[in-house]
């Protein structure tokens, strides 16, 4: 996903090679992570795609099957990886992730501590944010989850930027070796208030802590603990609303009271096709229509940010 060599620029301009991990885009709600293997094939409803035909093509290429169907070959960015990774736990999605990276003030070179790792969705974006000279140290109490996360980071080329540890942060706190060394700390724990004192010891002066919790009761108790050593405590709930923009039919025939009928607000594309004066029965026009998506994602969790108090 990212170059292992810190001297290289972070980009996906290179050509697809045998052994690369890619994201196959079939449609907006159907993506697959596939390792390119010369001699292998991908079979789906669009036909059969030979991996050998992909090798040497740039990321973003549109490739065709023998029956004329096509897919896109995309680079495994953190945003796309979040959509295709295996869900070992509930994950954070792009809306929350982008908010976290921004408010934790993460830039290249930062040292970030995270608990727990879970499915590694956030860890992947944190790694890109600190690259090429920073590092993410993430911890999970579940040994098998931690091992699976290591495998994923190896697949995506992030193993040089992310170190996965097995540790009960709620019970033991963060390792002492990170005391005063972390620029930011992120907590995704059922009882984050138990880990907040340890997180405060890990942060540099003016460092920022974020705690993600699905329930407001967790937020209230966490904030009580934060007030001892933190300031500028703020909680946010990020809600995302997506829109569908597509071509459709608009009725310009009018209603009983003479006013025009339109199923949705729209931008007209062809005025000449609105009404056929010669026929008189053509009352529909092709238009580009926009409306909120029928399936809207609601509450995911609360994000509480706090800044470590400066010691005078």
Describe this structure in words.
- The protein has 312 residues and is α/β, with parallel strands linked by helices.
- The chain has three domains: 21-76, Vcp-like ATPase, Chain A, domain 2 (Roll); 80-239 and 299-308, Rossmann fold (3-Layer(aba) Sandwich); 243-292, no CATH class.
- The chain is built from eight helices and 16 strands.
- The protein has helices at 51-54, 78-84, 94-103, 121-130, 143-155, 169-172, 196-202, 216-226, and strands at residues 21-27, 30-35, 41-44, 47-50, 61-64, 70-74, 111-115, 135-140, 162-166, 182-187, 203-213, 230-236, 243-251, 266-268, 284-292, 302-308.
- The strands form four sheets. A seven-stranded mixed sheet has the order 9-8-7-10-11-16-12, with helices on both faces. Strands 2-1-6-5 form a four-stranded antiparallel sheet, with helices on one face.
- Strand 3 (41-44) and strand 4 (47-50) form a beta hairpin.
- The protein is globular, with a radius of gyration of 25 Å.
- Mean pLDDT is 86; it is low at 1-11 and 255-280.
- Its EC number is 2.1.1.220.
Task: Offer a few descriptive terms.
312 residues; alpha/beta; Rossmann fold; 3 domains; 4-stranded antiparallel sheet; 8 helices; 21% helix
Short description:
This protein is an alpha/beta fold and 312 residues long. The protein contains eight helices and 16 strands. The strands form four sheets. Strands 9-8-7-10-11-16-12 form a seven-stranded mixed β-sheet, with helices on both faces. A four-stranded antiparallel β-sheet has the order 2-1-6-5, with helices on one face. Strands 13-15-14 form a three-stranded antiparallel β-sheet, with no helix packed on it.
């Amino acid at each position: 996903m990212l170059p292992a060599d810190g001297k290289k620029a972070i980009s996906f301009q290179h050509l697809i090679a045998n052994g690369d991990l890619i994201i196959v885009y079939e449609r907006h709600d159907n993506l697959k992570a596939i390792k390119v293997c010369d001699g292998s094939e991908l079979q789906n409803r669009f036909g059969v795609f030979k991996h050998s035909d992909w090798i040497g093509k740039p990321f973003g290429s549109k490739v065709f099957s023998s029956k004329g169907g096509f897919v896109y070959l995309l680079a495994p960015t953190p945003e796309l990886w979040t959509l295709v990774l295996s869900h070992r736990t509930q994950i954070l999605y792009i809306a929350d992730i982008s908010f976290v990276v921004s408010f934790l003030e993460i830039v290249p070179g930062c040292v970030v501590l995270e608990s727990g790792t879970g499915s590694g969705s956030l860890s992947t974006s944190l790694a890109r944010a600190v690259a090429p000279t920073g590092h993410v140290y993430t911890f999970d109490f579940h040994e098998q989850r931690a091992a699976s996360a290591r495998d994923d980071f190896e697949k995506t080329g992030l193993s040089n930027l992310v170190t996965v540890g097995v540790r009960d942060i709620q019970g033991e706190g963060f390792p002492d070796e990170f005391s005063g060394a972390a620029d930011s700390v992120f907590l995704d724990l059922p009882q984050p208030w138990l880990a907040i004192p340890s997180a405060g010891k890990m942060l540099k002066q003016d460092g920022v802590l974020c705690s993600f919790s699905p329930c407001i009761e967790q937020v209230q108790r966490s904030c009580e603990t934060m007030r001892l050593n933190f300031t500028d405590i703020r909680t946010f709930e990020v809600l995302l609303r997506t829109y569908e923009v597509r071509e459709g039919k608009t009725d310009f025939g009018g209603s009983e009271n003479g006013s025009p009928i339109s199923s949705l607000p729209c931008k007209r594309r062809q005025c000449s096709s609105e009404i056929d004066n010669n026929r008189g029965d053509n009352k529909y026009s092709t238009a580009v229509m926009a409306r909120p998506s029928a399936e809207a994602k609601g509450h995911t969790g609360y994000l509480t940010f706090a800044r470590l108090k400066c010691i005078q």
